[in-house]
Design a protein that fits this description.
206 residues; alpha+beta; Glutaredoxin; Glutathione S-transferase Yfyf (Class Pi), Chain A, domain 2; 4 strands
Amino acid sequence: MSKPVIYGISTSRAFRSIWAIEETGIDYEHVPTSFMGDAQSEEYLAVNPNGRIPALVDGDMKLFESMAINFYLAKKYAPHLIPDGLQGEAQALQWSVWAISEIEPLQTQIVVQKFFTPDDKKDEAVMARTARGLERPLKVLDTHLAQRDYLLGNEFSLADLSLAGVMDLLNMVEFDTSAWPHVQRWRDACYSRASYTRAKQVGESA
């Protein structure tokens, strides 16, 4: 029986799915695939015609989009990561979608300014405005986490992995979340997991 294959590198959106497959504990194959060049190859486009990462191949199954990959991996290989019942699954999906709708667009603007904009064209006003924009969702998250260890209760779940995986970019840009102590405590707990450390090592092997 063939092993699942995950494509991507940790310095990209693929990290959240590399982390997810590490969290399952299954044996898998990693194909380092960069978003510049590798993802446009004919071979890779046969896996993901969008030319983006990550992608997953599991037997006859080909899947793209990081959150879809994460839900598939959890449902098939680590069902304990999704609470039983419709409500628990819906809440896991809620926070995963929230991550890419409320957090990711804002933090991406900071990444673009810091790492992809020439020094003479960096716009500090854009970064300041974006940082202010993050205050609202971070307050929502901090309030939610004030009464629980993790997003869905007192156990780490797929919701935590997907949201913390998205927010890993805030580490890259050194964004300070200390003003939201429950968020900071939760992030520290998520990033202390062995699966997170392994994902960083695997993803950076490209």
